[in-house]
Amino acid sequence: MPDFSIGVDLGGTNLRIAAVSGAGQLLEKVTLGSKGPSTRDAVIDQMCDAIQRLSGKYKESGKFLGAGIGVPGIIDLQAGMLRKSANLPGFEEYPVRAEIERRLRARVVLENDANLAALGEQWLGAARGVPNMAVVTLGTGIGGGIVLGGKIWHGMNGMAGEFGHVTLEPEGHPCGCGNRGCAEQYASASAIVRMAREAIASGEAPALARAASSGAEFGAQSIYNLAVQGDEHARRIFRSFGRYLGILLAGLINVLNLDMFVIGGGVSSAWDAYARNMFEELRERSLVYAATAPTHPLESDSLGKEEGAAAQTESRSQRKTIITPALLGSDAGLYGAARVTLSAG
Amino acid sequence: MPDFSIGVDLGGTNLRIAAVSGAGQLLEKVTLGSKGPSTRDAVIDQMCDAIQRLSGKYKESGKFLGAGIGVPGIIDLQAGMLRKSANLPGFEEYPVRAEIERRLRARVVLENDANLAALGEQWLGAARGVPNMAVVTLGTGIGGGIVLGGKIWHGMNGMAGEFGHVTLEPEGHPCGCGNRGCAEQYASASAIVRMAREAIASGEAPALARAASSGAEFGAQSIYNLAVQGDEHARRIFRSFGRYLGILLAGLINVLNLDMFVIGGGVSSAWDAYARNMFEELRERSLVYAATAPTHPLESDSLGKEEGAAAQTESRSQRKTIITPALLGSDAGLYGAARVTLSAG
Predict the structure, then answer these.
(1) Domain match, B13 and B150 both
(2) In whole angstroms, what is the distance from residue A114 CA to residue A333 CA?
(3) How many structural domains compose chain A?
(4) What is the strand order of the sheet A108-112 is part of?
């Protein structure tokens, strides 16, 4: 008879809803595609219908503890509203939490999706049992979430974890946020495509140029495919990506000295193309990383869950921050959304 | 009958010891100068004598709760030892906490001096009553300490808060830590002197050249004096200093979204020469800083304690991270050292 809660991932395209038990067991997952309704009220109708159906279905077997809703954008936690969101038209400044609570007659928590991905990986993924960790999500942009002592670190206004807008190059590329040289201009999927287009424009990257004009979608994945096939220009792009990701992580480790950083998002799976350069920068640029332990023999490869767990059992002062790929993929946020009402319940 | 504890600031030159009541009242402060003994055992003798004298003197009026000892360098909290310290010869890898506990028969806590400065400012200084804050200490290098929920944030190995070695310029000046472009190469007293020497070498900074060859000590203070007198080259140095301090703070705010950053250390008092540029970078480079509240009319001037306190009473989502000069000067660490045994007691 497990108590359960419902996690919602309200992205710009998909609406995903999952019932998860208190022990972390997935009971059921529903994905409502992008072809569904697009007005705010229709999305809320659809979400509440699905939550009610799932909560009704499983309430025989345990208590329904509430729903966590993950959304992209800047959230006012107290008010339960989105202050800013590029991908959810109509939701800004609308009392979405209050409206859903009214309909469901259940506890609802509204949270930033990157924060929930961190909580999900900490609960059931790569950082299971690691109290202090962060997720860096490498997608179109860079998202981030920090978990301290097993709880999301919100900071003063719920805006902590904006890793993507840390300045890495003071005179670097302009960013949509108004700054120059933000991390996401150097270590995101968009950055990879920009670097590829720059290489193509130089006239010296024929394989990239062919891929770009082939008619197939030209993105981080196709550039990664070229890198795997040995194309030097594509490989160079991922080396630069790894270098800047390493600079970002080195700074975060010097500041926070966390146990673990989990690298998620679509581009994270290109690990073998960027990890070596990332670790090189970490050793050079983080005295905290370098000081804490001798170089791990596996450090320039993927550290799987086993190595991570083993490292955790070493003595405290011997441990080095572990950098490891995410394990839950796009479900991390969904599990985190379910977790947030369990832990705060 | 106040309970009290004793704080010790064991720097490279001075040894300072203070008895402080649980309510934060200074009972007595002793400064033992640099002309004292210099071997490790002699320093420990002198320290223990002074602690015993003070604890004996005030034990009539309240309970002695223990001694906190602040030291520069990398500390193993569990072991109560210094792992690395440039300024305390003989102390590395020596069980200093155990030895002092043995002599005093009292609880002793060994802590990093920058962490204690943060705790001191949070307890009795500029961040009084602010739960989540950090201190950035601008001296020869840059120190840092983070307080979350009223407690020092140590991270995994007690090494959190190494703000001075966050990379600000990936291809910048080499740093003693092995990295390039560390914050302390751009926003410390040493950085100010280096920039001045570079300006002098260019042959275009006559006032700086005169000051450097005058026979008087040539340091951040004399360069600041020239800036105050209107020398354009000296002013430019502090503008650059403020710019890089702003870049560092913008990154920290994007990551941590703290309530307050307290700027301490010798150079912090040159506030009027660097604050404007620091705030310019903050607005441009931290979407978290920029998003949280409209521009504060006083933001480009010193925010005194009154404004800080007023800002704290605003609603949570309206508040902006406050950047303010430290209030306790070199006593911050001493108060923090006393606090650390009170709060952990």
Answers:
(1) no
(2) 7
(3) 2
(4) A26-32, A15-21, A4-10, A64-71, A108-112
Query: Is the domain of B145 the same as that of B230?
Result: yes
Per-residue pLDDT tens digits for B82-107: 988 877 888 999 999 999 999 999 99
In whole angstroms, give the CA distance from residue A333 to residue A177. Answer: 24
User: At B27, which CATH number?
Assistant: 3.30.420.40
* Residues in chain A within 8 Å Cβ distance of B167: 168, 247, 250-251, 285
ipTM, 2 dp: 0.91
The pLDDT tens digits of the residues spanning B153-205 come to 999 988 999 999 999 999 999 999 999 999 999 999 999 999 999 999 999 99
For the segment A71-81, the average pLDDT, to the nearest whole number, is 88
Q: Do A157 and B316 touch (CB under 8 A)?
A: yes
Note whether A156 contacts B83, CB cutoff 8 Å.
Answer: no
The alpha-carbon gap from A235 to the nearest alpha carbon of chain B, in Å, equals 20
Q: How many residues does chain B have?
A: 345
Task: Please tell me the total number of residues recorded for chain A in this structure.
Answer: 345
Q: Which of the residues B152, B255, B318 would you substitute to probe the A interface, choosing the one with the greatest number of A C-beta atoms within 10 Å?
A: B255
Both tokens assigned to A280? 């090189």
| Residue type at position A192 | I
CB B253 within 8 A of CB B288: yes
pLDDT > 80? residue B142? yes
Residues B184 and B116 in one domain: no
Query: Given its phi and psi angles, is residue A18 left (phi above 0), alpha (psi -120 to 50 degrees) or beta?
Result: beta
State pTM to two decimals: 0.91
Do both B169 and B313 map to the same domain? yes
Residue B74 has pLDDT above 60, yes or no: yes
- Claim to verify: residue A139 and residue A270 sit in the same structural domain: yes
- Which residue range(s) make up the domain with B276? 129-327
Q: Are the beta carbons of A163 and B254 separated by less than 8 Å?
A: yes
